[in-house]
Write a structure and sequence with these properties.
Helices cover 39% and strands 14% of the residues. It has 10 helices and 13 strands. The chain has a 5-stranded parallel beta sheet, with helices on both faces. A hairpin with a 4-residue loop joins strand 8 and strand 9.
């Protein structure tokens, strides 16, 4: 059972699970019946419309599930409230296991207050760890695909790689498709541990500059934007001037994620890549675009 199946990552998880020849139920809200929903049905998933406010219906939807995977994304009303209702339904419906919507840097190694979205997931983790159901969180670092747009580290026009603090601080990068493939495998593994760490690549800003030079045949250099303290002040200023409190990914939230990447406290290794038969995407193939 995949909740949040009409989202980008959720849809990829559904397709990855279908590729493993298992029955997949895509849990969707009745008001989210869309082209994405029809695409899931066409791919072979059983689309299950259910109102998250109807606890009994949600529990029935989860009945008999080998694993309930949450790919829900949002703020408190989603990560805490809706995901807690999903957890209760998984327990009430007798689902065997639960995978929460983490899919990020290992926030357990970071102090509270350094990332709003991580703090919400940390609060849900506290609830999950007291629930009577086995759970597995997957930590994948940042999505490698974002190097081609949303994540401003590679400045192609300037042929520079941007960084804060230490150019040799290493962080994990994993494509969305690889995260989805690994999640599908973990969902089918009754012996999966509480936490799994993966990385399609473990690199630093310096490594990225070397990689871009090799891929493009043109020299890329490092561009230090300041210290981590400078980045923290930028985050505070941006958050004060452009709060966007209702946005899931305002500009300052993305800056918080960059700070966490370069912070050095969230581990990028060791990883559990070899646990399942995932073919990992080469970072060269990601940045060629």
């Amino acid at each position: 059972m995949v909740a949040g199946a009409t989202g980008d990552l959720g849809g990829r998880i559904v397709r990855a699970a279908l590729a493993r020849d298992v029955a997949v139920h895509a849990l969707v809200r009745p008001d989210r019946m869309s082209a994405a929903t029809m695409a899931l049905a066409a791919a072979g998933a059983e689309v299950v419309p259910v109102d998250f406010a109807d606890a009994a219906a949600l529990a029935r939807a989860c009945r008999g599930a080998m694993c309930v995977v949450s790919a829900l994304n949002g703020l408190g009303e989603t990560i805490l409230d809706a995901q807690t209702r999903l957890l209760d339904a998984a327990i009430g419906g007798g689902a065997a296991r639960f995978l929460p919507s983490d899919f990020s840097i290992d926030y357990t190694a970071l102090p509270t207050g350094t990332n709003r979205n991580f703090d919400l997931r940390r609060a849900f983790r506290t609830r999950l760890d007291t629930a009577p159901i086995p759970a597995t969180s997957i930590f994948n670092g940042a999505f490698a695909d974002m190097l081609n747009g949303e994540m401003p580290l590679i400045q192609r026009r300037l042929r520079r790689v941007l960084y804060w603090g230490d150019a040799d601080a290493r962080f994990a990068l994993t494509t969305r498709d690889d995260v989805a493939a690994y999640t599908a495998a973990a969902a089918l593994d009754p012996a999966a541990p509480r936490d799994l760490h993966i990385a399609g690549a473990q690199v630093s800003a310096r490594d990225l500059a070397v990689l871009m030079t090799q891929v493009t045949g043109r020299e890329y250099r490092l561009l230090r934007a300041g210290s981590l303290g400078t980045l923290s002040r930028m985050i505070a200023t941006t958050r004060r001037l452009f709060p966007q409190r209702g946005a899931v990914f305002p500009a300052w939230q993305g800056m918080q994620y960059l700070h966490n990447m370069f912070d050095g406290r969230a581990p990028s290794a060791p990883v559990d890549n070899a646990r399942y038969d995932v073919v990992w995407t080469d970072l060269r193939d990601v940045v060629k675009g």
